[in-house]
Design goal:
This protein starts with a helix and ends in a 9-residue tail after the last strand. Helix 2 packs across helix 9 and helix 4 runs parallel beside helix 5. The protein is globular and about 45 Å long. The protein has 252 residues and is an alpha/beta fold. 46% of the residues lie in helices and 19% in strands. Strand 4, helix 5 and strand 5 form a beta-alpha-beta unit.
Length: 252
């Protein structure tokens, strides 16, 4: 056996004995992160809105516990963290979805809901999670890259995309030595992407296979690998990490 293979096979799990909480962990990137965290020895706690889907996911990854609630429900979110039985190490948040549409055609409730679902929810998660976390633990939030350029129908999504890196950097200052980082993903092939694109899904996949610098579509496993790295590399905090296969570098 070569030295490289022997070293890889003997490597200790990077999250052994640690607890990882996945807010929105019943599908897609959250569930894949739970899978990879379990492979690295972590205990996982999953939350989601759909009880049947959450139960299935929990069985697959042998979750330590689960909780059914909407992360935008501030009371339920606070109660969840208050009721966690012991200190936790990492929290990853994939709950939420992008909001598209012309800003001036949206009613005010839609605009407020979009801001709440990302900026306000992330602040509240940091507020409630930090007292439960061990020093050096991490908060990993999910943002995007696709709405950095202005475009009709992208006003709210673009504003949130640009605001999130500043929010994450400031949260890192406030909750140190807990670490806070942002994953800014381009298109990722998930059930949510399929729901949003419908019949256009395969066309979008093919377009990205032809134009992405990596000549393939970014998968949930790619994002999960980055999330686990952000949990385990204790030198990383206050930063935004793009993962889009070079999509943002390609002229549209």
């Amino acid at each position: 056996m070569s030295t490289a293979v022997a070293t890889q096979s003997q490597r200790a799990p990077q999250l052994l004995g640690q607890t990882v909480v996945l807010i929105g962990g019943s599908a897609g990137m959250g569930l894949e992160t739970a899978r990879q965290a379990r492979t690295e020895g972590a205990k996982v706690v999953l939350t989601g809105r759909n009880p049947e889907r959450l139960q299935h996911a929990a069985g697959e990854v042998e979750a330590q516990s689960t909780a059914v609630f909407d992360a935008n429900n501030d009371g339920a979110l606070e109660q969840f963290f208050r009721d966690l039985p012991g200190p936790i190490d990492h929290v990853m948040v994939t709950a939420g979805r992008p909001t598209y549409g012309r800003m001036l055609e949206m009613d005010l409730a839609q605009v407020r809901a979009a801001v709440d679902e990302h900026l306000i929810m992330y602040i509240q998660i940091a507020r409630y999670a930090a007292p439960k976390m061990k020093p050096g633990g991490s908060l990993v939030f999910l943002g995007g890259t696709g709405s950095r350029r202005p475009g009709l129908g992208l006003g709210i999504a673009s504003t949130i995309t640009v605001a999130l890196p500043s929010l994450i950097a400031n949260l890192a200052l406030e909750v140190a030595p807990i670490r806070v980082n942002l994953i800014a993903a381009g298109f990722v092939d998930t059930p949510l992407s399929a729901e949003l694109l419908g019949d256009d899904l395969e066309n979008r996949r093919q377009q990205l296979r032809e134009t992405n610098l990596i000549r393939r579509v970014v998968e949930s496993s790619d994002v999960a690998s980055l999330a686990v790295h952000l949990m385990t590399n204790t030198a990383l905090t206050g930063a935004t990490y793009d993962i889009d296969g070079g999509q943002s570098l390609v002229a549209r």
